[in-house]
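User: I'm putting together a small comparison set for a docking exercise, and I want a reference complex before I start. The sequence is below, and the ligand is coenzyme A. Could you produce the 3D structure with the ligand included, as structure tokens?
Assistant: Of course. I'll restate your input first, then give the structure tokens for the complex.
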Amino acid sequence: MIEIQAEQNKDFKAVRQVNLAAFKRENEANLVERLRLVHNTFSFVAIVAKQVVGHIFFSPVTIEGTDPEHLLILGLAPLAVKSEYQQQGIGSMLVRHGLKECFQSGYRAVVVLGEPSYYQRFGFFCASEKGLKCEYHVPDEVFLVLESENGALQNVKGTVKYHSEFKNV
Ligand SMILES: CC(C)(COP(=O)(O)OP(=O)(O)OC[C@H]1O[C@@H](n2cnc3c(N)ncnc32)[C@H](O)[C@@H]1OP(=O)(O)O)[C@@H](O)C(=O)NCCC(=O)NCCS
């Protein structure tokens, strides 16, 4: 049985292990530890047989030149599932649960820098269609957005900036 829960302090060590194992480097595990100190973040774990096997994190992004207080947009990153538990729907459960919680908390949209073929299944689409650009030099098609509801991002346009902690990844 797979359970998705809000991350608790007792999960921190296991979450680090999940990120290390999934990305095969320390960058994302370190990023999560630094982002935990940022306000208004969301972190969820996937539990199988009392073990943490997957993890997802959301942190606030801003749009250059816009008042961040009223933006209510989150960036999804990172997402990780231990390799022996991949291809069983756990990543999808983390994404769907996380999005539901973020939108229920009043967030208007979530952006992600990732594989379109993976994230399109959750409704993400090219952020450039909404006039949103990633601050990093990446192809348009890998910077995606999902609105809480149609039109949630009306009149919101510009360059999306991730928290400064992302610069170290
Ligand atoms: C990406 C990841 C979280 C998916 O977790 P998962 O539990 O295997 O995902 P699910 O079982 O819900 O979905 C599996 C589907 O995702 C697809 N998928 C997995 N990784 C993918 C990738 N990098 N690009 C595109 N599709 C991918 C699989 O092909 C499979 O597709 P199908 O449903 O059409 O067969 C996991 O592969 C992982 O931890 N990868 C290493 C870390 C990473 O790249 N994270 C994402 C970037 S932040």
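Helices lie at 12-23, 27-35, 90-104, 116-119. The longest strand covers residues 51-60.
User: Thanks, that's exactly what I needed.
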